[in-house]
Amino acid sequence: MERTIRSILGGLFLGAVALTLLPIFIFGGIYFMEQRDIKQMGKVEPGDPCYMRKKFIGKGGHDMDYEVRGDRVCILFHQSGSFAYFKTLEDADSATFTKIDGGYFIDRNRVYYDQGNIVVGANPLMFKSVGNGYYTDDVHYFYDGRKVDVDFDENHD
What we know:
This protein is α+β, with helices and mostly antiparallel strands. The protein has one helix and twelve strands. The protein has a four-stranded antiparallel β-sheet with strand order 1-4-3-2, with no helix packed on it. It has a four-stranded antiparallel β-sheet with strand order 5-6-7-8, with no helix packed on it. A hairpin with a 2-residue loop joins strand 2 and strand 3. The chain is elongated and about 90 Å long. The N and C termini lie far apart (83 Å).
């Protein structure tokens, strides 16, 4: 009888310890895994003034693709759960930087796609959507941030 009570109490004690430590292992592991993944991405320079981890405040967080801070454009480069991670978008013009639809951003000098990748060959002054995910600068066509060769008829529905 005494042995059974000791076994039950020992099991309860171990169970309580496991339930206490489990969240630390799970959430601590997620945090360290996140930090490791971000460092392995190699997308943030040490000391980047834009680097931050920020909890989403908008509905679904989708309104937080970038932030202008003084003369600096801070762009979202990684999203994990309800947190967003930002980095400096080098050489972006903060006075004219804006988001357009489809994951594209423009300033007076460049067109950017997704996490601040420069869209090579795109003229920001003429850049616009032509539908179905395609964009043009009146000379070239672009899809998913890349210049593409297409036979596109603007009059065709």
